[in-house]
Amino acid sequence: MIRFSLHCDHDHDFEGWFRSNDDFDTQAEKHLVTCPVCNSHKVEKALMAPSVTTGRQKEKIAVAMSKMVTELKEMAQKVRENADYVGSDFAEEARKIHFGEVEKRGIYGEATGEEVKSLLEDGVDVMPLPVFPEDHN
Questions:
Q1: pLDDT tens digits, residue range 2-31?
Q2: Taking the CB of the first residue and of the last residue of the chain, which one, N or C, has fewer CB atoms within 10 A?
């Protein structure tokens, strides 16, 4: 996807996302690109500054990513230390806890995509527990 800065004939500036430059051109020719302010179909691409990441920005991003991974690892470790592992029975146990059939407690385990979707539809709060490469050693 490409983000374009756009400009209409009434001096309104806005942005739009397109698959390609040709995609924008095709949509503009068919009057499918309109100004969100005045609904004008006379829209053109405006000049944009290129998005360039400097070495300093890359370093900041790397530090932030490293901090985030460390925090995720700590959170996953706390869950493993303080919750019961229920394996492939996760969906069944989560429902029992949610509906008050068993005592409330923290659990973790495995669930298929369909099981997770069904749990969410039933109002059961779940979230994925990140698994890191070193967790498999």
A1: 889 999 999 999 999 999 989 999 999 999
A2: C
Furthest-apart CA pair in the chain: how many Å? 65
How many Å apart are CA 100 and CA 17, to the nearest integer? Answer: 47
Look up residue 57 and give its two tokens: 């920005």
How far apart, in whole angstroms, are the C-alpha atoms of residue 114 and residue 53?
40
Pull the structure tokens for residue 127: 């979230």
Q: Where are the domains of the chain?
A: 2-45, 55-129
pTM assigned to the model: 0.56
What is the Cα–Cα distance from 37 to 97, expressed in whole angstroms?
Answer: 50
